[in-house]
Amino acid sequence: MRPILKSNKLDDVCYEIRGPALEKSRQMEEEGHKIIKLNIGNLAVFGFDPPDEIVQDMILNMHGAAGYTDSKGMFAPRKAVMHYTQGKRIGGVTIDDIYLGNGASELIVMAMNGLLNTGDEVLVPAPDYPLWTAAVSLSGGNPVHYICDEQAGWYPDIDDMRRKITSNTKAIVVINPNNPTGALYPREILLEIIELARQHQLIILADEIYDKVLYDGEQHDSIASLADDVLFITLNGLSKNYRSCGYRAGWMVVSGEKRHARDYIDGLNMLASMRLCANAPGQFAIQTALGGYQSINDLVGPGGRLLRQRDMAHKLLTDIPGVTCVKPKAALYMFPRLDPAMYPIADDQQFAYDLLAEEKVLVVQGTGFNWIAPDHFRLVFLPNSDDLTDACGRIARFLDGYRRRHGRG
Fold this sequence. Notes:
Aspartate Aminotransferase, domain 2; EC 2.6.1.2; L-alanine:2-oxoglutarate aminotransferase activity; alpha/beta; transferase; alanine transaminase; 13 helices; about 15% strand
């Protein structure tokens, strides 16, 4: 029979966070091995529960969650998001500018589907959260990666961004706070990005899903709060700040220069209507989450579990010979660098496979985040202290053996 092939639209699409290494780990688990999974920021499995008031409100409202809602979402949670944008000082946002989605992920794909024609280009950071690159490709566009500079705290290289703008460029993606590096961009960097968008009439798509997961007293500036003459699409949700990954409750806010974007906005409205609506139970969680006690502050503040585990993971990793890591200011991840002089890695996916096979630790290789060289990997620092110490100890043991096998011990 004629083979049934996947669409060629998927040729350049990958998502290594749940890629081949995860499949290998599942096989190993079926064989009886216990795997320490540091590949994904799934907070619930590490004991980070959502606030009780969110859970209770969803339960109480479940009887009203069986029908379709408005295609953009229910009024009350959208009003809560509007108030949230006002607190972030994003101007001119109305109820009609807010779209609720099945997590920010659905809305990222929607934003790209509504925007791109074949051959259009979007500037995406390297390293990036790989869904952005995949969404551009799946929508017929070409992702063009601008470098974030590790030597400068993983801030975007504005000159590199400028060099890569062409007549085909439609938008700039800004992931702030950043996944996978944990970088938090200062206002002056954000203003430089806005100026590029202004000069070249580009849209700014801002992924701000970690805007409350901040350490050491850091503050987050929403890039859309810094100008009103550029079109901004800001994406956020409950997954990380409120430990509610599985509820799939996210939102997208259109702000700034909307007058010249009516046709694009019509396209977003059409796409929102085609999916009928976001899941209603998740929508019921939004108003309670945004208006309730912000328990994330207890986790990231002095003595908080996330802060303690960030500090522990950073020390354990950087104590390993040849391993350096910019200490994250935000988010849930480490993106350490392996000195190529000590770790001559040619294929970092194979490196991740070997670590999994030998030490039963699952991480994601750096090229899975569209990084340019096989010299980084990402891990989450969510396991409890004992498991985190065990995992980093296994990584250290593997790297010691790697150095010895390659004569770099």
